[in-house]
Amino acid sequence: MKVRPFVKKAFPVVARATGLSSVVALRYRGRGAIFALHSVVDPSTFHPDETLRCSEDKLEATLRWLKRRGVDFVSLDEAMRRLSRPSAAPFAVFTFDDGYADNLTRALPVMERFAAPFTVYVTTGMITRAIDAWWFGLAALIRRRDKIVLPGFGHLDCSGLPGKKRSFASIEAAIHRDFSLLARVRALIDASNIDCRALVDQEALNEHQLRRLAQHPLVTIGAHTMTHRNLAEASTETVRLEMAENRRFLQDITGTPIEHFAYPFGHARACGEREAAIARAVGFRTAVTTRHGQLFSEHLHHAHELPRVHLAYDDTPSSLHCKMNGVLRAVHSRFGSPIALM
């Protein structure tokens, strides 16, 4: 086992066993957490893009673990109300990005068993099938190949299931660091004659499924832009259109108000204070990032900069314990402010 993966797996166990996690929690736990997910899948299936997947049994085990620890499952609206009530019980909010059909077919039945509300942030292009879903194409490419040569990045060994998972995670992380790499990834996908639109058609919600989700009492539909682009690289007017037109599109289909938003990618290279100001001006009540952190009462005044906690495919009780205690925020902020903002 390589050193970094070993440390990643071992650290939560050590932090929990030694009491370090509980000490960190005194400052970083906050009032509750927003969990970020994308797709929910059958645990028996293989997906190179497992960073974007959560198995049904992992989701159920997480809900069960949280429930046993007295954590309430609440909607985004209820979470914001609880931030103004110091005596409220700890809570968890669940959110799913992009608009995968399995949010209806696989996630919803699990959430129903726990009466757990959740929000699905939907991109217009997922519904219309017009989205530039390079992540689907990249996963398909890695499935086909035992080796990939990506100009300016290097050679990747995609032989075997672990190699395919590592390759996807490596390229995905590199794109998030430098979005200019996307052009080279798209060129490889195109050269392999991979039809990304057909892959979207297999994976994404259609209008009928979106309406079914929107009508369910546990579900809130949120916005996620028209095209899922990096908003930080777009003009102010383009950002406004991406948000406003996506909101209008979803309201027209669902017949319900769309009041919550998720920034595509959500990290510091993809959104900042300008995007938060635009989200507020467009009319969203909240907006979520992918910055690591828990929710604090101070977020009532920063409702368009809400942090989230990623529910990972390899999470364990120890890693969940650390996440709920704010350990990730402490580490990523180098033990700076517990309140994650843009």
Categorize the overall geometry.
globular
* Beta-strand share of residues: 15-25%
The residue-averaged pLDDT reads: 95
Main sheet: strands, sense, barrel: 8 strands, parallel
Total strands: the figure is: 12
Taking the alpha carbons of the first and last residues, their distance comes to 36 Å
Instruction: Return the string of H and E elements.
Output: HHEEEHEHEHEHHEEHHHHEHEHEEHH
Structure summary:
It contains 15 helices and 12 strands. With 342 residues, the chain is an alpha/beta fold.
List the main descriptive attributes of the protein structure presented here:
342 residues; alpha/beta; 8-stranded parallel β-sheet; two-stranded parallel ribbon; 15 helices; 12 strands
How would the blueprint of this fold be written?
Blueprint lengths: L2 H16 L1 H9 L3 E6 L1 E3 L11 E3 H13 L3 E2 L2 H7 L8 E8 L3 H12 L4 E5 L1 H5 L5 H11 L2 E4 L3 E4 L2 H18 L4 H10 L4 H8 L3 H9 L3 E5 L12 H19 L5 E3 L10 H10 L3 E7 L13 E5 L6 H8 L2 H6 L10
Parallel strand pairs: 1-5, 1-12, 2-3, 4-5, 5-6, 6-9, 10-11, 11-12
Antiparallel strand pairs: 7-8
Helix pairs in contact: 1-14, 3-5, 7-8, 7-9, 12-13
